[in-house]
Amino acid sequence: MTEQQETQVKPQPTAVVNGGKSRSGALLGGVAILLALGLTGGLYLHGHKSAVAQQGELDQLKLQLAEAMSKLDQSNSKESEQLAAVGKQQQLLQDELKGLQNRVLDLNDKRPNDWMLAESEYLVRMAGRKLWLEHDLISAITLLGNADERIKALNDPSLMPIRKALAADIAQLKGMPRVDREGLTLKLAALSDQIELLPLSTVSMPEAKIEPDQAVSTNPDEWESNLKKNWVKFTENFITIRRRDGAVEALLSPQQEIFLRENLKTKLLQAQLAVYREQQALYDDSLEKAQRWLTQYFDTDNSATHYMQSELDKLKGEQIQFDYPDRFKTQAMLEEVLTERLQRILASN
């Protein structure tokens, strides 16, 4: 009986263990369910927030797109209006141009000679510019002659006073002295090239004074004079002293010589510029200084220096500045005739 009781008592611990396992499994299952529910809720909240944010961004993009489309429509509308205005303005300009062309053709048919008269007036104005701005006397005379040929071809007796004034203007210009500016500048340039060949002047020493006769006298009373003369003869082989009265000019250093020659070239270049600018005072001053430096620093006995001095003397006598007429008589007469004819034509229309 004792063994059977022990055998019946042994299964009881197994039941206790199984009961504990079932409780812990249920607890773990509940925790897992709670975690799953929490994770699911968190994912849902995160997804909901993301969806809301994306929806907001999408709405903002839609709003920006709508604004851009509105601005584009407004811009297209403005461009269309501008194109329409430009087209209308272009049409107006074309109409005005066509009207002007018709008027020009009408004027040409009525007074064809007026164009030749206007061309003559233009030639006279060009002659004035050549004379007053460029001082080109020959071109001015040529242009006035061409204007006279145009008026002559018109064969209009009413224009004879204009031709008379043209003849007076041409005669006045032909009576003015002409200067060979190119020739003057070429001569000055040639002289400038010869400056390097000019020799400088050497030191000029004043003549020494002639010493009195040192001959010994036979008169015993002149023993002091004889003693002095003998002493002079004795010492003249050691030291010789000669008195010279006058200023002695020192030689130029090599650097000073270079500066001198360059300054002389500069003066001749200034004279060339003065020829084209018609600056008589500058021209004369430049040549005068060049001559003074030649005389002061260069050998005047040398043939090259003498030639340059003579050429500068000739160039100094040239007149390069003149008083030109302020206005042509013909110009005012032509302007008056053209204005009168134009007013007459416009009045007839």
TrEMBL record:
Enzyme Commission (EC) number: 2.1.1.107
Molecular function as annotated in GO: uroporphyrin-III C-methyltransferase activity
Composition skew (Polar residues), residue ranges: 1-11
Segments passing through the bilayer: 26-45
Pfam families per the UniProt record, alphabetical: HemX
Keywords: Coiled coil, Membrane, Methyltransferase, Transferase, Transmembrane, Transmembrane helix
Region feature Disordered, mapped onto this chain: 1-21
Taxonomy, superkingdom: Bacteria
Protein name: Uroporphyrinogen-III C-methyltransferase
